[in-house]
Amino acid sequence: MAALWRGRHRWKRTNCLHVLTRNLTGKYDYDLVVIGGGSGGLACSKEAAQLGQKVAVLDHVEPSVKGTKWGLGGTCVNVGCIPKKLMHQAALLGTAVKDAKKFGWQISEPICHDWSTMADAVQNHVRSLNWGHRVQLQDKKVKYLNIKGSLLDEHTVKGLTKAGKETILTAKNIVIATGGRPKYPTNIPGAMEHGITSDDIFWLKKSPGKTLVVGASYVALECAGFLTGIGLDTTVMVRSIALRGFDQQMAGLVTDYMEAYGTKFAWQCVPKRVDKLSSGVLQVTWMDNNTGNEHKDTYDSVLWAVGRAPETKALGLDKLGVQLDKETGKIVVGADESTSVPNIYAFGDIGEGRPELTPTAIKAGKLLARRLARHSAELMNYDSVPTTVFTPLEYGCVGLSEEEAEKRLGKDGIEVYHAFYKPLEFTVAERDASQCYLKVICERDGDQKILGLHFTGPNAGEVTQGFALAFQCGATYSHLLQTVGIHPTCAEELTKVNITKRSGLDATVTGC
Ligand SMILES: Cc1cc2nc3c(=O)[nH]c(=O)nc-3n(C[C@H](O)[C@H](O)[C@H](O)COP(=O)(O)OP(=O)(O)OC[C@H]3O[C@@H](n4cnc5c(N)ncnc54)[C@H](O)[C@@H]3O)c2cc1C
């Protein structure tokens, strides 16, 4: 009855709206409506459909300030992990070409990079993924609606097409997985008019040219890294520290390597204004907080990487009383991804306190779908999530930073094993390996359980992924030493690490 009443009430309210075919004998149109077709939303909707639920997923992309737009799949596929890793690969290949000469390849100079060839190839791959996602949804019988969703009540979603046509959907449960978007600073004249963000950089038709990247998050450093790697004059402007939240010794190695690689850093500097000169170049005025002096330089592009804002504005959450975190604006969620309103769930980048990573969004989405379909009660384990920063020298880690381990157990409660090693590939190529380093942070007592594992070097993501399994299983320092290495690899150095920081001995690995 309640549903029928809700149905009539809605009809009355929206009698000029297009209403999706409803099964009026059923209580709701769908078992599950997911708002947001990114990493998390797609995984959640497909899993639910496979478990027999009737599912719809809504995805809508608001063009960036610069007008960049893209297809189904969310941040990771279109403006995140995928294009970023491919452009990182483009940069790594540049270094490989230089190494290749030492290995006997005869390559005629000059070697130059063509942005539009790279961008076309990357964009074509992304489009193929957009298409793949649509096909998968169809195959798995998930109804895909390219509309912008907002909530009317805990069982009702209003969808709006680009043409302004409204659609009402009802569901037993509603899941919000709308992610976030890059922020622009609000207090810097010219920032928004003349700047771009990570929402634009991967879709530029022509090279960004000489670029100023403002910010020192992993997104900032990764973008600056690949821009430098493909030969562009690139500067990173850092207000305070790089890679906040990561182990700061490792962050220092990452930025030291980047400086040696050619990326310029303006440390402790803050931009004041951006002006477009008559020649078309952008003049940036900034303050050096160390000296108090003002500086100016010109750039072809200014890329703001100063954080991301949750996509909650259009959802109408305030009217429903869905609680948001006052500081971050993200949705406050429980361990089961529930919000403060029954039947409404949220996860992925939009969830307060959740890691902003694709694999956690995917896993959390699948587990939520299983719980909603009463298939399992398993909760997402957000501990021990490994990650990698794809800077020119990659950095992978799992577990605690040294600072955090020290905070929790005290300096005397931890033992840090570390090594500076030289990847074999760097020897013939005569590459500097000063920043290739690893450290394993362990409890000092008992079995010396591993608390954190950190690695800079080639293929850090691949290395860290393997050790993350051991970490998840509660590996100890002796497990590490019992592990037989694979020779000759960089990862094997982790199985040999034996110098403690406390000893003060030279941690440079010698011999093979
Ligand atoms: C430059 C960059 C590089 C990254 N690199 C990595 C990496 O290497 N590894 C990694 O793990 N993570 C990486 N990330 C993070 C990763 O992309 C995100 O953590 C992940 O995409 C979050 O997934 P999500 O499902 O929560 O949200 P999203 O993927 O952002 O998806 C949300 C979707 O909802 C849509 N939407 C928003 N509002 C509405 C609405 N009202 N109605 C309908 N649809 C709506 C959005 O348009 C979007 O399509 C990177 C991010 C960036 C920006």
From TrEMBL:
Binding sites annotated in the UniProt record for FAD: K85, G149, D349
Cofactor: FAD
GO molecular function: flavin adenine dinucleotide binding; glutathione-disulfide reductase (NADPH) activity; thioredoxin-disulfide reductase (NADPH) activity
Catalytic residues identified in the record: H487 (proton acceptor)
One GO term of the biological process aspect: glutathione metabolic process
Protein name: thioredoxin-disulfide reductase (NADPH)
SUPFAM superfamilies: FAD/NAD(P)-binding domain (SSF51905), FAD/NAD-linked reductases, dimerisation (C-terminal) domain (SSF55424)
InterPro entries named in the record: FAD/NAD-bd_sf (IPR036188), FAD/NAD-binding_dom (IPR023753), FAD/NAD-linked_Rdtase_dimer_sf (IPR016156), GSHR/TRXR-like (IPR046952), Pyr_nuc-diS_OxRdtase (IPR001100), Pyr_nucl-diS_OxRdtase_dimer (IPR004099), Pyr_OxRdtase_I_AS (IPR012999), Thioredoxin/glutathione_Rdtase (IPR006338)
Cystine connections: C76-C81
Pyridine nucleotide-disulphide oxidoreductase dimerisation domain mapped to chain residues: 385-496
GO cellular component entries: cytosol; mitochondrion
Enzyme Commission designation: 1.8.1.9
Cofactor annotation comment: Binds 1 FAD per subunit.
Family: Belongs to the class-I pyridine nucleotide-disulfide oxidoreductase family.
Residue positions binding NAD(+): G215, A216, S217, Y218, V219, A220, L221, E222, G307
Domain FAD/NAD(P)-binding: 30-365
Keywords, alphabetical: Disulfide bond, FAD, Flavoprotein, NAD, NADP, Nucleotide-binding, Oxidoreductase, Redox-active center, Selenocysteine
